Structure formats: C-alpha cells, structure tokens
Amino acid sequence: MPPPKDVVKIAIQMVGAIPQLIELQQTKPLASVLKDVCDAWSLPNAERYALQYADGRQTYITESNRRDIKNGSILRLTTSPDQEAEQLYNGIQSKNVDVKTDSLKKLASLSQDVTFAQEFISRNGLKQIYSIVEEGNDTGEMLAHTLKAFTELMEHDFVSWENLSTVFIKKIVSYVNMNAVDASIQQLSLSILENMVPTSRLLFELVKKEVTLDRLLTHLQATNAELQLKAMALLIALLLSATDAERRDMMDYLREKNLRQFIHKNIIHSSEPLGDEMAHYLYVLQSVSLNLCEHRMKTSMDPYSQEQRDLLQSLRQTAFESESEVPAGSFSTERRRSLCAKEFRKLGFMNNSNPAEDLRRAPPGLLALDNMVYFSRNTPNAYSRFVLENSSREDKHECPFARSSIQLTLILCEILHIGEPCSETAQAFYPMFFGQDHFFEELFCICIQLVNKTWKEMRATQEDFDKVMQVVREQITRTLSLKPTSLELFKTRVNTLNYSEILKLRQTERMHQEETLAAPVLELREKLKPELLELIRQQRLLHLCEGTLFRKISSRRRQDKLWYCRLSPNHKVLHYGDVEEGVQSPPIESLTEKIPVADMKMLLVGKECPHTKEKSSGKQNKDVLELAFSIVHDLEEYCLNFIAPTRYEFCLWTDGLNVLLGKEMTSERTQTDLDVLLSMELKLRLLDLENISIPDKPPPIPKPPSNLNFCYDFSHAEQ
C-alpha cells in the first residue's frame, strides 16, 4: 500500500498581500500552520485568524475537514469563526439600521458554514434572531436577511424546531398570510414552515390551523414560480404529516376547490418547463391521493354489514331492473333466493349463492365493489350492455363481470403502486391524473370495457380468464408508458392496442429472440460484443463529461440543495460544486471542487454507501438506497456521495465510474443497451438472409483439389 498523502501543495491569499505557496503538512496541528502563515505576513494574534476556501461555499478549514484539501487548492486567510460570530452577534443588535442590515446580510451568507453556525449559536445568537422577528414590524430587506440566516442556521440541526416559541411561529405565519409583503419573505416563511411541520405533531397542528388551505391555494395561483413551488412544498409537507382521516379531509377540500384542474391547466401545461422539484411534488400529490384507496383495498367485505350488502344488491338491481320489479309476494322465499343466485351468476360472481365471499379477498377488498358500483351508477348503459351481452352468450364464452372487476382492480392497484410509500426522489406522475376527478374509478370504467372487448377479440372461454387479464395488463402498461395527457387519449390509445396488435408485438419479440438463438448467430454476437461494449463505454464517459445535476436530500426531505458533477474532457478529473436552481449545465470552471481520477479507489452502491448508513431510521426509503452511490478516494478515507435523480442516471454514472476504475460495467442498463445494439447490428448483417433458414452447423469445407495447376502463374505475365 502506498504511503499516506500527508502533504498537499496549496496557495494562501490575503487581501493586500502577495499570496503564499506552501506545502501543508496534514499531520501538523492547524494552529501551528496558522502561526507560520501569520508570521510570514507579520500578523500578530494568529488565534484570531482562520483559513477558508477562496472559491465556492468558502467553508472554514478545521481539523475535521482539513483532509478534504486537495493539491492546488486556493485558501484565504480570514477572521476566525469565533471572532466573526462575536462581531456579527454585536452587529445585529446595533441601533444603526445600516450596520444591522449589513450584519444580517453577512450572517445569512456565513451561516451556511457549520463551524461558524456552531460558534454563533453557542453565543445564543438565535435568541437575537427570534427577537428581531418577534418584535420587528419591518417587512423589507432586513427581515429577508434575518429569515435567510435563521433557515441556514436551523439547517445544521444544532437546535430543535420544537424549541421555537408560539409568538415566533405565528409571526412567520403572518408573513405567509399577508398580502402586502415581499415575495422573497413569503418564500422564506413558507420554507421555514415546511421544515417545521414534519418535526412534531404539535407544530403540524399549529401550522395547519394558522395557514389555511385557501391561503396555500392563493399562493399556488401566484405568477411567481418560486413562490408557487414553496407553497406546493408546504402543502405536501402537511399532507404527509397528517393522519389518514385528516389527509382524506384535506384532499376532499382540495377537490372541492378544483386543485387538480388548476394544476393540470396552469402548472403541467404552463408555458414554462416543469422543474424537477415541482415534478416530485406532483408525484407525491398523486401518490397521496391514490393511497386514499388503500384502506378500502385492504378491507374485506363484511357479509353482516347492511350497507355493503345494499351496494352488492344494487349491482344486481341495476343490471336486471325489469326482472327485479316483480312484486315480492309473487314468489316464495326459496324461489326469490334462486332467482337472485341466478342473477349474481350472470353478473360473473363465482359464489352466486353468497357473492360476498368473492369480495373477502383483500386486496382488492371493498375497492373492487366500489369500482363496480361506480361503473353501474355513472355509466349505466355501458354496465347494462356488458352484463346483458354476456348473459346471452354460451356459458363457457361469457365474460364474468364481477370476477373481471375484482382482478382488474388488483391489477390497477399494482400498476399505480397503491399502498406503497412515496419515494423521496421520484418524479414520474401521470399528467392525466390531474385532469380528472375520481381518476381511479374513471380509469377502471375504461379498462373494464377493455376487458370485455379483449375477451371478444380472443374468443375466450372461462379457462382463458388468466390469459385475458394478462393481455389487459400488457395493454394498460404499454399505453401508460406513453404518458397520455388525458383519460380520453388513454382510452383511444388503449383501444387501438387491440389483441392482434399485442400478438404482433409479441411475435416480433419472439422472432427476434429465436433469430438470435441460432448457433452461428450466437457466435457472431460474441464476436461483436467487444466492439459494442467499447461503444457503450465511450457513451458512458461522454455522459459523465456532460455532467448531471444532483440533489442533496436531508432527513427533513428538503430538496432545494443542488450540486453538479462532471468529468473533464481528458477523463482525468471529476469536477463538482454547488449550483443554484435553474442552472442546467454550468461551465466546468465554475465547479470549484475536484477529484483526480487517479485518486479514486472504489465505487460503493446502495447500503454500502456511508450516506445511507448515516440515515438512522429503519424507515430508510428503498428508492434512495437504489439510487445511492459513493466514490471512495484517497486511500478509502474520504467519499463523495451521490443520490442519482433517476435509475437511468444511476446506471450511467456507476457504469462510467467503473470504466474510469478499469472495471466491468455492471448496471442493468449496460445489458439493455448491449442487447439493443447487438439486435440492430445483427439485423443489418442478416438483411440478405431474410426468409432463409440459418443451419445450426456451417456447411462442410470441401477437400483440397489433387493439384493446383488451374491456378494462374503470374511469373509468366507479359513483360
């Protein structure tokens, strides 16, 4: 093992002085290093100074983070954090408005640094910030700097949110509820409340009471995109912290206020592109809304519940209305029971004498009954046509409505992930979800008619039930993958994708598979693989050179911290650094941090990553684990931690980093890309052999001729 890198060559700047170029001994105490630097510039009282990075976040250098200093780093000699904290602590108490404002502005900037924040908080600095907010009536620049400083200080988790006074919280709430207040102050106030809500039940109840849903809806309708985003963030935080009953009430109220339609029209179809953070919030809103179905999905039917039995009977009465109108006295009890059983059999219940038994399975439980009732009440013509049409078919060819509905409900729950926790990073939502009230029920109505259509196209019998439902699942998933913008468009596309189209797609896939299994083709595949793998390697490295925007996710689900990472064009250095929202592709010069590829030792993924181990809760989200990876550098002592925005980015980055480390690409995307490229290359090479069967063995090579006299002798060529 090579010796530890205990010496780094760095530059140290100071205003009005010639920079020093020094070799920093990492084993030497930082106080001694500072003494030497101050002596070189003839500065007394070295303990009053500190080193910090000259670029980027300008973090203070401490004994705990000094190992992050790289060769070529530029540091700056500046006032020590404790001195700076003392000056600003006094400055924010100044009677001079200009001094106070400037101090708060500097405080907001320096509070991002954990060392400074610790020093300032230890002087009871937060108490002064509380006072400025609680006692002040200013709503201008001074307040904006105060709230920004407070947000940054609380981000370090040195102080619990539960320590905040009710007066302070109500003051923050008042800024959200005011009309005549600067938008930046409202954004900061909304952000503070968003971070506060998940920390305790008491704070949730206070914020929910003081900030009404109507007020949040007003902010959502603002033209200011950042204000709109912060209002959505607080709404999502309230929904996630609420109990099931509270969440249901809140969603019912939002439905009354047409929130979905507003989002569909003014956010999804806005002229401005949808940002990643808003896409995540829309995904969460969709997930929370669909998960309201979870209780009914997991509840079995109670045969002794009069309400549930009435719903079941309503299905029969709606379908066979004329037959049910016969007066009760016309038939004996036994005859009436026999007639009901016959009608429930026509409805497609397996247990026609006691149809409640069919709904005892959970999931889908009572959700299947709800869907059937909704279909019968909201589209009675389609419901009657489905039931009566199948009643007139031969017994073995009839499509069982109830059995199909129960299975279809289960399929839709699985496809839409009902009952699963929200991902902390996902952004995949269905635009059509926001264009329709009762989305799940309306989707069911379209799909149950699709079941009947597909059943007829397949000329299915009862034995084919599972095959039909498998085809229907495929029709739904293939159509949803196209991201239709409305249910009408979904209906059109899913009906176009009929059984014959599914067969064609399957046949194409099967033929391709059979083609590629012939022995000569397999041999050709193996010969092509190295060249195509090299092409994939180059693509991965090119993607790393273009770079990706990553998010820092804390335990409070905050997603407003962004950083960018990209590989240098010569593939020798990884550059990274913090960026602001809206920056798509920052120039490589603006990314101040760097890791030489030669210093990279190992790639960790999933549970092996240090930043996933730090997450204390056992509730660690599965999605975050699937997207986490870390680069170990400098002899396994330090890690650069990532959480990829998507699984696609995770695959490309882990593959690219493995290429840089000289290892095999291991992601599932590599295999997918290789299969696609091999398929294309093989098709091109086998074009001339279309409709010609390829033998398993090559034709035999003929024996050499007895002599080679037939060959032309070039030695006798004309002179």
From TrEMBL:
<dbReference type="InterPro" id="IPR001849">
    <property type="entry name" value="PH_domain"/>
</dbReference>
<dbReference type="InterPro" id="IPR011993">
    <property type="entry name" value="PH-like_dom_sf"/>
</dbReference>
<dbReference type="InterPro" id="IPR006816">
    <property type="entry name" value="ELMO_dom"/>
</dbReference>
<protein>
    <submittedName>
        <fullName>ELMO3 protein</fullName>
    </submittedName>
</protein>
<dbReference type="Pfam" id="PF16457">
    <property type="entry name" value="PH_12"/>
</dbReference>
<dbReference type="InterPro" id="IPR011989">
    <property type="entry name" value="ARM-like"/>
</dbReference>
<dbReference type="InterPro" id="IPR024574">
    <property type="entry name" value="ELMO_ARM"/>
</dbReference>
<dbReference type="GO" id="GO:0048870">
    <property type="term" value="P:cell motility"/>
</dbReference>
<dbReference type="GO" id="GO:0017124">
    <property type="term" value="F:SH3 domain binding"/>
</dbReference>
<dbReference type="InterPro" id="IPR050868">
    <property type="entry name" value="ELMO_domain-containing"/>
</dbReference>
<dbReference type="GO" id="GO:0006915">
    <property type="term" value="P:apoptotic process"/>
</dbReference>
<keyword id="KW-0053">Apoptosis</keyword>
<dbReference type="GO" id="GO:0006909">
    <property type="term" value="P:phagocytosis"/>
</dbReference>
<dbReference type="Pfam" id="PF04727">
    <property type="entry name" value="ELMO_CED12"/>
</dbReference>
<dbReference type="Pfam" id="PF11841">
    <property type="entry name" value="ELMO_ARM"/>
</dbReference>
<dbReference type="GO" id="GO:0007015">
    <property type="term" value="P:actin filament organization"/>
</dbReference>
<comment type="function">
    <text>Involved in cytoskeletal rearrangements required for phagocytosis of apoptotic cells and cell motility. Acts in association with DOCK1 and CRK. Was initially proposed to be required in complex with DOCK1 to activate Rac Rho small GTPases. May enhance the guanine nucleotide exchange factor (GEF) activity of DOCK1.</text>
</comment>
<keyword id="KW-0729">SH3-binding</keyword>
<keyword id="KW-0581">Phagocytosis</keyword>
<dbReference type="InterPro" id="IPR016024">
    <property type="entry name" value="ARM-type_fold"/>
</dbReference>
<feature type="domain" description="ELMO">
    <location>
        <begin position="307"/>
        <end position="480"/>
    </location>
</feature>
